[in-house]
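Our preliminary data section would be incomplete without showing what the modeling component actually yields. Below, a chain of 381 amino acids is followed by its predicted structure, encoded as tokens that our downstream tools consume directly.
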Amino acid sequence: MKPIIVKSRQKVSEDQILGETRTDPILSRWRSSIWKLLWKDLLMYTIVYLVIGLVYRFALPEEYQIHMESLIKYCHTQNAGLPLTFLLGFYVSLVVSRWWNQYCSLPWPDTIATCLRAVKVKEGEEEEARITRRTIMRYCVLAYLLCLRRLSLKLRKKFPTMKNVITTGLLTEAEAKRIGEEDSVRQHGGSNWWIPLLWSTEIAENDTNISSAPVYGYIQMQLAGYRQKLTDVLNYGHVPIPLVYSQVVHLAVYFYFGVSLISEQWIIWRKEGDEILYLYYPLFMTMKFLFYFGWLRVAETLYNPFGEDDDDFALEELIDRHVKVAMRIVDKIEDPPLLQKDAFWDIPNPKLMADKDDDHNDDDDVTIELITSQEKRDPMK
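Predicted structure:
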């Protein structure tokens, strides 16, 4: 069948594209925005600033106003020397890098499932082989859940005990007894999350179809790599950013803006040369508050990506996706499509999409539409 040349482009919704595709202004968004994180803090800070200004201008006698003006000038001079940008910039860079590395360390079971599917099974043993493949993948997802349950507040709330894990179908009661309660918070040696992966390696070793397959060594290597990645994720929980560094950064930010409540006040004109533009609302201080505290809130939000914030990892969706995809790969219940000549058969110069200036009258140039109608993107697909 000759491919159809596409001469028009279909409209595509932003919901059909994975990633950042929104066209509305960035500053007008609310979810995960600086406005959502800071509006309460900024409101309280502005109120305190205005109250101090009103007390200084209208409640204090002139003698105390003069002392207050000296304090304002002194604080303004001293506050300018704090290395706030350096401290905060390096800290946020460290937290963001750590956040991204934790996500990249999360393992995916797809490669293990694909290798298991590639194993040639002896005639008459497909049902038993299917049970073996599905059990290995179930153990991989179970180890994933038990490991991340030690780090994620959301998963811990959803599965507070092993009985709750049993209800998912990933674990039987007999297997749960062999693993243990998994309620220890010790850094090392307090969890047996790795035992299902040990069972997986033993099952693969004892299965004649898998152990005699050319991909057997690669399967064992992938299982070992899967465990290594989960261990890497746990290491971020075992060794957090040093508390003293986080305290120094927070202390610097809070001290700077605490002093700014005084140093950013406008003084009263008393003699020639004191004239300054008086703004009733602290515009530039508000901008600095949004910049620096916004930076700090980014670090606080990303510090633990396994929590319940808007930008934390969607672990529940990931686990559901891994179960769905891994089991479907190893099942072998669907035959591949029939072999047939493709749309580019005997076409010497096929193209997926033509250039804007291409002449579609040339029979040798082929343009096909990759997506004409698509349901809303589902991350589990």
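The first helix runs from residue 34 to 59. The mean pLDDT is 83. Preliminary results of this kind motivate Aim 1 of the renewal.
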